Amino acid sequence: MPVVQDLAFWVLSVVAIAAALGVVLVKDLFRSALLLAVVFISVAGFFVLLSAEFLAVVQVLIYVGAISVLFIFGIMLTRNVREGNVPNRLQIPAVMCASLLLVGMIAAAINTDWRPIPEAAAQMVDAAQTQSVAGPPAGASSSGYAEQDTGLAELLIADFVLPFEAVSLLLLAALIGGLALARSRGS
Amino acid sequence: MSCQLASDSILYANGIYRLVYEIVGVVLPCWVAYAIAGLVFAFILVNAVLLGAAVITWGERRVLGRFQNRVGPNRWGPFGLFQPVADLVKLLTKEDLRPEGSDRVVFSLVPVLMVAPLILMTAVVPFAKNTALASLNVGVLFILAVSSITSVAIFMAGWSSNNRYAMFGAARAVAVLISYEIPVVLSLLGVVMVAASMSLGTIVAAQALPFFLVQPLAFFVFMAGMSAELNRSPFDVAEAESEIIAGYHTEYSGVRFALIQAAEFGGVGVVAAIAATLFLGGWSGPWSEYLGWLWFLIKTGIIVFLFIWFRATYPRLRIDQIMAFSWKFLLPLAMVNLVVVTLEVFLLRGDEGVLTHTDLAIMAAINLAVTAISIAVFGNLIKDRVTFRTRQPQQVVVPGVSTIEVS
Amino acid sequence: MYGLAMVKGLMVTLKNLTRKPFTIQYPEERAKQHPRFRGEEFVWYEERCTGCASCAKYCPLGIIKIETSPSGSMIPQGEKYRLEVFDIELQRCMFCGLCVEACPYDALFMGSGFEQGQYSRKNMVITIDQLRNAEKHPSTWFRPQLEGYEGGTDSFRRTPTIAQGESRFSYDPRGGPPLGWREVGRESWRWHQREKAGMRLEQGEAVPDTGRDELPQSARDSDAAAD
Amino acid sequence: MPMRPLSGEELAKAVNQEYPGVAVDYDEVSAWIRPNRIHAVAAFLKDSPAHDFQFLNSVSAVDYVEYFDLVYHLTSLRQQSSAVFKARIYGREDLRAPSVYSVWRGADFQEREIWDLMGIHFEGHPNMKRIMLWEGFEGHPLRKDFL
Amino acid sequence: MTIRTEPMTVNVGPQHPSTHGVFRVRITFDGEDIVEVEPVFGYLHRGTEKLAEERNYVQVVTLTDRLDYTSSMINNQAYCLAVEKLLGVEPPPRARYLRTLTAELQRIASHLIAVGFFVQELGAFGTPLMYGFRSRERILELFEMLCGARITVSYMRPGGVFADAPRDFWPALNRFLEDFEDEFAEMEQLLLENEILMIRTRGVSPIPPEVAINNSVSGPVLRASGVNWDWRKQEPYDAYDQVEFDVPIGSNWDNYDRFWVRIQEVRQSIRIIKQCIAQIEPGPVRLDLPLVLRPEAGREAYGRVEASKGELGFYLVSDGGISPYRCKIRSPSLINLTVIERLLVGWKLADMIVSLGSIDINMGEVDR
Amino acid sequence: MSLESMLVVAAVLFAIGLYGALARSNVIAVLMSIEIMFNAVNLTVVAFSRYVAPLALRQEIGSVLTGQVFAIFIITVAAAEIALGLGIVFAMYRHTESVSLTEANQLRH
User: Fold this and answer.
1) What number of other Cβ atoms are within 10 A of residue C111's Cβ?
2) pLDDT tens for each residue of C22-54
3) Using the beta-carbon criterion (under 8 Å), do A117 and F51 form an inter-chain contact?
4) Helix-then-strand count for chain E, H and E
């Protein structure tokens, strides 16, 4: 249903951009962390629109469930919320830098000929993306398209096994590093 | 003009939804029918959660009363069944208080944010054959993701209340939520692995033998983790009323309190429903075509009763002990379960990739032994950590008095 | 094994789940009330009262207000006084029963009720008229003559109810018709003998029992013997 | 084994042996000591092995209008004996006595209570504030001339 | 993660679910660790000592009921012993047995509440408390049978008790004892070895004996600190020299020991009650004293008992009038609180509540 | 809804994040802005994966999900980065009692 999807897209865009602006502009750091969670949720909505449901769920699980909470924890423990979100002296260069980049990116996005795949193929991609994540939904017969496809899990541990292991190593390093940092010097 | 749902839609499998959609679709345009059918189902879900919460408040108070040799609420209606109504009326007529210095917007948002994830979680639970709103193929993951929103809501409650007890409660609740997420996810991985699907409908169908027999360890970890996430005894530090009044919702009153309370008890119901689906076989049972909802309700009731029973019996752990329990006991158990189940699935699965009934029975036998052994082993491991080294008795001895001492 | 005691605990609570509740539902059911219960409505027998105001003096809170005037009657016995005011300010009463203990003529008794909540403080004063007109169900508190009553008139019901069927002879203040002033008091010749409950002047006059022996003579019987 | 109460005479003798002239009077159960030596006597009674009064039962003050009596009830757990010593403080205003807080911590709240209700200020007590009544309450209610 | 946070001060109480009445502690936390404690009393101060100076000796008995309302029998007993010392009289033997018996019943009731609330504060949702209340209810019923009131008993009088027990009392008491042993065994089974209770209380807030003695701590708290000191043994009053019982003492001095000592004392109380029932003889129960007592002028007496919370002493001074010239109440709850700083500082918020519960204060007695 | 519109939204989010990262002085605010930028990048990757790349990639490695794999890697890295970043913030706060970037001018304390 393209109408519904378009509507959803516009709503999500407005919410995401407004919330993102809120994150960087609101003075109360706690509120800006909450707005950050809103940004995350709307990005998850975008993922659903792009029929990447698995990614959407992961986005909510990790960003909203863990990262936002970590941020809020950090804000709470460092306790300088009300005065917290003050801008520094680089205000004008930052605005200029960001807007220049924005103009450039939008120009590139619009002027480039992306050669998107045809609409019929796009719908098949939708179905394939949906189904190759976790098998076909119960009760529905799987379309022939998805069966030839490699699922996300297989992709991760077959083709992308090296980056996968690298990321695991990174996580481990981060875990140890976090522990080392958070451990107080005395104990 | 009539509308047909595409057969690969996630809503297709839902019988009720399809029925409403097709009937409304006869007279109205398809997108209106789409919305109306959705609203009908949302109405059912919201009512299921809130009514379930009401029934559980009543049931908990009655059963807890009987555990304590009391009667429990029995004035309103037969067996006090209308007690939740009376409570609600009372709470609705209360003055709406907001503490001074609180963050107005955030404070008001919290009750909604507490209830919403529950209703979302219910959306993927099959009450009977083909009745889940959306048989999402990432159902289990969806439940975990949505339930994690609660931690943000709790933080918002604690922060915006401008009360130190609320802050304590929020910090504790979030710490518990984060630590118990991991063992719960790991225990669910085993389930997903055996069922070979993350969709709850498929998991129910895969339970030729209920999974609490196949993976008792996962069931144990899940129940323990979930009672921690729900702030149920013995892990109810977040709203330990003897320590921090009511934790993060200390400052809430009136209808906001009612909503938070509904979220708490509704949470018990929803988690019980999920546990019944994942581990007790959901709606499956004799004549499940027609009586599926009954089996489902009975199994949910059993889990709720278990929660109440634990609450009636156990004192509360301290926050650091709860963390230790999660990281040092539940996490290793969940990992043991994961490794064992992986090996079993790898070895027992036939060529067509399906586990037969016999396979499940073999797994059940092995896993029961593994459960007993690993609980004993890890229990003894943490026992040394948690029990206190007995000091040498050193007392002022007064002669001529017969005494008895702590063993 | 570690965790065994927790399972044991679960079993204990489960066992209790199957038991009958030990609480009772108050307005419909009532707890057993014992004859000595110090209830809130005082029972006063004007015929026995001399207006000496011992009760008022002995009240730790001073909530009893008594006004008397000479009545001109019973001059030979030393003029009986007429009671004009006998107010008991119930809102401050703590039901210690010391007024009853102080009364030398068995005229004042504790009552047996406990349900006299009022909406205004004014109503919390028991006036002399209320005392006169009230149904008289005196408590046996500090009135041993009411306790061991055996046989006698119908107003002394034999109640097998108290303490789950143990009491065979006690008078039940909550039941039966109200008691008249002749039924409740000791004989007038003993009034000044300062024999109070439990304060036997001579050993062996009555044998307090321990529950092991045969029931002793009742106070009533010993009174009769003394006559 | 029953308790052996120390008679006033014994106590007075013992105190006078250590600090001559400090015990000024005695009766059957108690001995009076000079109020300015309370702390020293308390420390002596607690620490000397012959007496060993480790346990302070209670500290009381009695208002006799012309003077106040401070009464200390002591118990020795090892010796199984008890003793009472008193100190007499004359006057009504600005009364002071040395605190035994540093000898027996158990005197903490009791001394504060005496200050609160009787108006005897204990010197050497680290937290000499009112305990039952609020700061700024007029007078000391347990005195005989209060109301 | 140990992250230093700013200390924050929290008023725990006077309206808090578990401060045992209107007790307020101003606590400074660092995270959840307690760094500073300041108890604040007086919310229930009724001036009992002053009131006692304006009542005659018998009327004061009613005041003592209201000190520690969970053990009013024992308060009665302490006061009556003090008055008897003042008068130099001895109650008749039957009265002494009745006093001992009722005091032990009251001790059971009080300890049941103490244990129940202690576990309640550990977070058990009311179940042990309710089991305690179930048995306590029976005891209160016995008291009602005995003296017409359940809490504010005013049963004892200087020179004895006000009246002998009614006939129904003895069989009812026997039945209670039979049932109670089972009920109490159930409670022990539920609590005594419970692992959660163990890890919550073992090793938490220990008070070494020398600290306990120096702080004048008494009662179960002192015994849990390893000092076998019980006034019932050391200075037997009433019928305690006639009965045999053991004194439970702790060896780890911690919260668990305080809880354990109470449980064991209930067992010993049952023993004492049984011996009392076996030994009690018929006889008078009250001395022939006038209603208004006038002790000699200038006499003083310090009467003490081992109350359920600790040493309860009444220091009475007479000026020859009808009311005590001075009535000082040495209340165990207040003085046991002296160790509060030692008990709480360095422990966590959750332990604080439990430790407060383990010393079992009663605000009626702390503030008087 | 098209690829371009999705890219524009992502670009706007990225620019906002960049502004935040440059203009804030509070470390936590900076980290939050960086998260917004990560999310914008994720959005772009998934959008390309949905609209442009799949057919070609499918011929090469047999799946249409490559873009999502990249997104997953980005999420993982972001999680690790936040854990470490906040660890550093706490360490810094512990030593200097401040979370202001302008005051964090020393590598060691």
Assistant:
1) 24
2) 888 888 888 777 888 888 888 888 877 878 888
3) yes
4) 15, 9
Tokens, residue B324:
């230790």
- Residue B335's alpha-carbon distances to A157, B147, B229, C169, E55, in angstroms, are 20, 22, 19, 72, 72
Tracing tokens 């040799």 back to the chain, one arrives at B69
Interface contact F73, partner E, CB < 8 A: no
H-helix or E-strand spanning residue A117: none
Query: How far is the C-alpha of C152 from the C-alpha of B302, rounded, in Å?
Result: 60
What ipTM, to 2 d.p.?
A: 0.80
Say if CB E256 and CB E73 are below 8 A apart.
no
Side-chain-side CA neighbours of A65 within 13 Å: the count stands at 26
Element (H, E) at B183: helix B164-195
- Looking at the DSSP bridge assignments, the partners of residue E58 are none
- Phi-psi group of B354: left, alpha or beta (phi > 0 → left; psi -120 to 50 → alpha; rest → beta): beta
How far apart are the CA of F107 and the nearest CA of chain E, in angstroms? 20
Burial of D19 (0-12, 13-18, 19+ CB in 10 A): middle
Helix, strand, coil percentages in chain E from 3-state DSSP, rounded to 5? 50, 15, 35
- Amino acid identity of B308? I
Give the C-alpha separation, B347 to B153, whole Å: 44
Q: CA neighbours within 13 Å on the CB side: how many for C170?
A: 30
Q: F25 with F15: CB under 8 angstroms?
A: no
Which CATH number is correct for F3-103, 3.40.50.720, 1.10.10.10, 1.10.287.3510, 3.30.70.3270? 1.10.287.3510
Cis bond before residue C60 (omega within 30° of 0):
no
d(CA D43, CA B323): 48
**Chain segment C71-95, per-residue pLDDT in tens:** 776 666 666 778 888 888 888 888 8
Q: How many CA atoms lie within 13 A of E213 on its CB side?
A: 20
Among all residues of chain E, which has the CA nearest to that of C112? E148
Rounded to an integer, what distance in angstroms lies between the CA atom of residue B218 and that of residue B336? 10
Distance CA A47, CA A45 (A): 5
CA distances A18 to A104, A177, B179, C153, D2, Å, are 21, 35, 32, 91, 84
Indicate the Cα dihedral angle B145, B150, B152, B155, nearest 10°.
Answer: -150
Interchain pair E124, B316: CB under 8 A: yes
Q: Which among E280, E224, E267 has a CA at the least distance from the CA of E107? A: E267
Nearest CA in chain B to A37: B152
Task: Give me the torsion for CA of B76, B79, B85, B88, rounded to 10°.
Answer: 90
Which amino acid makes up residue A154? Answer: E
**Could you tell me if E166 and E285 are in contact, meaning their C-beta atoms sit under 8 angstroms apart?**
no
- Most E-contacting residue of C11, C12, C93, C207 (CB-CB within 10 A), to test interface: C12
Interface chains of chain A (3 or more CB pairs under 8 Å): B, E, F
**Could you give phi then psi for residue E291, rounded to 5 degrees?**
-65, -40
Measured distance CA(C223)–CA(E357) in Å, rounded: 53
d(CA D25, CA D13): 10
Question: How far is it, in rounded angstroms, from Cα F3 to Cα A143?
Answer: 25
CB atoms within 10 A of CB D28: 8
> Which residue among B13, B31, B148 places its CB closest to the CB of A140?
B13
Strand order in the sheet with E24-30: E8-12, E24-30, E33-40
Q: Which of residues 7-46 of E touch B (CB under 8 A)?
A: 8, 10, 16-18, 32
pLDDT, one tens digit per residue, over E324-355 is 888 889 888 888 888 888 888 888 888 888 88
Phi, psi of C125 (to 5 degrees): -100, 125
Model-level pTM?
0.83
**Between A77, A182, A183, which is nearest E5 by CB?**
A77
